[in-house]
Fold Acetohydroxy-acid isomeroreductase.
Amino acid sequence: MTTTYTSHVFPLETMDVPGGTETVLRGGRHLFPLLPQAFAGVRRVGVLGWGPQGRAQALNLRDSLAGTDIQVAVGLRPGSASAADARTQGFTEEDGTLGDWLAVAADSDLVVLLIADAALAAHHEEIFAVLKPGAVIGLSHGFLLGHLRVTGGEFPPGHGVIAVCPKGMGDSVRRLYRQGEEINGAGINSSFAVQADPDGRATDLALGWSVALGSPYTFRTTLDSEYRSDIVGERAILLGAVHGIVESLYTRCRLAGDDPVTAYERSCENITGPIARTISHRGLRAVRENLDPAGRDVFDRAYTATYGPAREIIAEIYDEVADGTELRSVILAERRLGNRPMSAIGGSPMWSVSDRAHARRAEHDVPVDPFTAGVFVATMTAQIDEFAERGHPWSEIVNESVIEAVDSLLPYMHARNVAFMVDNCSRTARLGTRRWGPRFQAAFEQIAYPAAELPADEALLTAFDTHPAHEALSAAAKLRPSVDISVA
């Protein structure tokens, strides 16, 4: 995949990555005056949906485009309960910035599809049918591409199709954008892709969209690559694997004699707190380097015992995403569930002590648990290696496997807890986590943890120490905002 591109609007940079370079766009509010040029030909942006991404993107786009002649409108289904919140944020029927989703789609030059995946699967043909000639279709992940492939559909000819995909949850996209009002460049990184470009303006439009969202840096991918890395990642290190890891580690700690709160601190609190912060600010290697010799031995044994089982599951997830099996399972589950609520996962014993563990934060700082660190870093590295072997570009690899986790999702899990995140994420992610989280849990309990009693595999440790991901993360860190996301 080529990661080189040009822009007629924005100044681009070259970022050194393992084996070559990538073209990237460094964001910031100083670029906002260039947005009218990037959005040339667009007089109305229609954002369909008011979920976490829809809300955040509509607000960010409106704020960034203020003072131009480009209007941002929100389109919702009739009777949507979200209309009231959209009105409180200043989108109204009276000024034409809030309306029926098909009416908004029909009158927009860029139509950003941020409705729920199930609704998108069911209603995309209705939306396509009302698009004005030449309107551009905007996506923020590749679910629709996967669905069209499974069902034999296609995007309508004559329309540009672009994607801008923030590497973080919707609330992160909005919160860091607001922090960017004080610290230029604060935001969530985004990838962009051009699926169809009938008039040759798609790249600059996508880059403008990303700048308007507040992305600190934007990198190129393809919609197919983004779809695979996004769906795999949320089932692995971004969410599904995290759930399996903390459940298995909590059980391990309890069996070793820890009281419930200590077991929670050594498992969930460790990953979402000190381990995530260390990786975010200092990289993967720093987690191991900060340990004393005894801790490093524990880390090494946990790491080398976990890497193999984790890699096997991630490869299986990838295969099922790539061939459409995973998406078909989601669609089948959506049909089976209909409008029925899904059962929560937060009923296992560890989540009953979450509040008590959080209350102890004021009393002491929880140190990095070397066993937990070894398990988590091994799983993260396994995903990195799977993506690298499958040909993903390095910016996509480190954002989908590391940066999105430690700079967006894990801070929210730390503020609430992992179960809360699973039970309140998108249905696509939730279904995938419920399917694959227990697979990680079982594999680690049955295979990895017994093997961690054996000496560490020196070859795997050498591979970790010399891993090209460290170089890629170091390059990406130079574009990292100087502020952590606020989750208060």
